[in-house]
Write a structure and sequence with these properties.
The chain has 222 residues and is α+β, with helices and mostly antiparallel strands. The protein is 18% helix and 26% strand. Strands 4-3-8-9 form a 4-stranded mixed β-sheet, with no helix packed on it. It has a 4-stranded antiparallel β-sheet with strand order 5-11-7-10, with no helix packed on it. A 3-stranded antiparallel β-sheet has the order 1-6-13, with no helix packed on it. The longest helix has 11 residues. It is globular, with a radius of gyration of 17 Å.
Length: 222
């Protein structure tokens, strides 16, 4: 919509409260791959079946000219009342969830990817072992491309989430999200460090929220 600054506002990342100490020590949010490489003891709030699908998703890195694991990115949401938070409510641990709020200015950083849905939705079958290699859409070629190995796709769900590699797509994707009541997922390169934003973990505009007061209902997550 004309006159709206889509880079104004915040994006959000959810973690379990017990992970705060290691986050504050490093002053960074690490990707799952980074946490494993550094052998950090952490508590996951992710749905394991979805994580198993993400294990098999690889995204083209234009700067390195190579595919990299989806787990090498840090995921962010554009909203706080997400389906993932509703799952934590159903699991009885919503009071243990912390939401980091970060200024959207980091969306202009090189290597940021956008998706128009859950990144794990790539028509992968949970009963087979095929992997998918994804080349995100760019301003020069505005279609997202995929290649399945050794064959596929083998999943029954034909709704596949697309990846986008430039902030120029943000306006279209946010409008699409509003129209469909969907949530966009943002993926940040490897780690989000306090060195990237002066106020990170120190106050406005990046605040730390512990969600204790939200009473979620099944139809209120969107």
């Amino acid at each position: 919509m004309p006159g709206i600054n889509y880079l104004a506002g915040s994006i959000y990342h959810m973690v379990h409260f017990s992970n705060l100490q290691s986050i504050f020590q490093r002053r960074a949010l690490l990707s799952k791959e980074g946490v494993i490489q550094e052998e950090i003891d952490y508590q996951s709030i992710a749905f394991e079946e979805v994580q198993n699908l993400r294990d098999r998703i690889f995204v083209w890195d234009f700067s390195k000219k190579a595919f990299r694991s989806l787990h090498s990115y840090v995921p962010f949401y554009f909203a706080t009342h997400t389906p993932m938070l509703f799952v934590q409510y159903k699991n009885g641990i919503q009071n243990e969830v912390v939401i980091f709020e970060v200024n959207r200015s980091i969306l202009k950083d090189q290597g940021v990817l956008f998706t128009d849905g859950n990144a794990s939705n790539q028509q992968l079958s949970k009963y087979t072992k095929e992997v998918v290699e994804i080349v995100p859409a760019t301003p020069m070629r505005n279609t997202c491309r995929r290649r399945y190995r050794p064959n596929g796709p083998n999943g029954a769900n034909t709704n596949r989430t697309d990846f986008y590699s430039d902030v120029a797509f943000l306006v279209t994707l946010l409008l699409k999200a509003v129209l469909k009541d969907a949530f966009l997922l943002l993926h940040i390169n490897q780690a989000y460090s306090s060195n990237q934003e002066e106020n990170y973990l120190q106050g406005e505009p990046a605040r730390l929220r512990r969600r204790r007061s939200i009473e979620m209902q099944p139809n209120s997550c969107c």
